[in-house]
Amino acid sequence: MPSAVRFGVNYTPSEGWFHHWLDFDLDSVRADLDSIAALGLDHIRVFPLWPYFQPNRTLIRERAVADLVRLVDAAAERGLDVNVDGLQGHLSSFDFLPAWTRTWHRRNLFTDPDVVEGQAGYLRTLAAALHGRPNFIGMTLGNEVNQFSAGPHPDPDRATAEQIDAWLTRMLAACEEGAPGRLHLHAEYDATWYQDDQPFTPAQAARHGGVTAVHSWVFNGTAQRHGRTSVPAEHHAAYLVELSKAWADDPHRPVWLQEVGAPAPLVPAEHAAAFTEATVTHALDCPDLWGITWWCSHDVSRELADFPALEYGLGLLTNDRKPKDTAGVLARAASARHTYAPAPRTTALVVPADPAVRSACAPGGPVFDAFFRLTADGARPTTVLDTRADDQDHLAARGVTEVVTPDQALPAPQGRQGGTRS
């Protein structure tokens, strides 16, 4: 039966970018939200900048929280639901961390007891302030906070997977304390799925919180290796959705494609609409998709300095709120959301459960290559852990009827006979 899929956008204010919290202008926000609502989208994801809201460990600025509530209320007036990211954290190549965690006050973001309690208090405060708003979806702990926990960050806050597990449990509990029953989750960039030494693991992503969130960016080596019109590039978002399902305990756990965009120059502006349409079409062929939230709403103003070049043009709308061709693509998809009823994916590709070898799933790895070979052959694959590949009850619950290893899905090296599918 058809089911609803959410279509939304990550809200980047057209005036002042996320620095708009310093000079909050509700009229400007309303104009931005009008331009988003005109596309027929149903939700936005918003980003309070953590140091602006909690400049001292024991000071959460009431005026900043009130401005966030005003934004959420303005969204409600336009029929938009709101997800709020708490710990910002990292956005568009910039780190935003409060001074009480850095330099002379350097303390680990994930393991220091005082920092952890300060974070929990902040998340609980934001959630509680919004709990009574019917259009408040829930909290995301922060934007890609895993980038602080390992390289290539220049100054990582190292932690073990067990310490991260405890941190996620505490932060999600704080959100639930503030807003019981809402959809609270965490979201990381794709190193969680691809980088062997990341302490944020695939199992955590697929088992903590109300949904699994994936962020898909083809500048991770996919477009560089294969090109923007390739099967891997156009199906990368769908791949992450299906890869995440291998680790989920719930056979029908929802997956939120929470960030995806068309980054120049790998996807030139004149080809962004075609890339957007292909990405959305293939993502909608994934069962149990919660929603698609595009990055981002409005272009970054050219008056702002030092952003990576690609950040200035990622918006569905220009900086003066004019829709681009990509906006039309997402608007059409949103208007047809009632047709979402993908068939089960019956072929499962085996992936290693051991997070120490998750690079097998990264661009150039055998799982990655095998998945897209199967996709090119029309197999519509999903994934299954090697520890579950023989679990008939698990496979049946997911609708899987065929299990394939990477060796079986890829051409055999010259001089070696390939195996047959099991």
UniProtKB/TrEMBL annotation:
InterPro entries: GH. Keywords: Hydrolase. GO terms for molecular function: hydrolase activity. Residues 403-422 are annotated as: Disordered. This is Glycosyl hydrolase. It comes from Streptomyces caeruleatus. The lineage of its organism: Bacteria, Bacillati, Actinomycetota, Actinomycetes, Kitasatosporales.
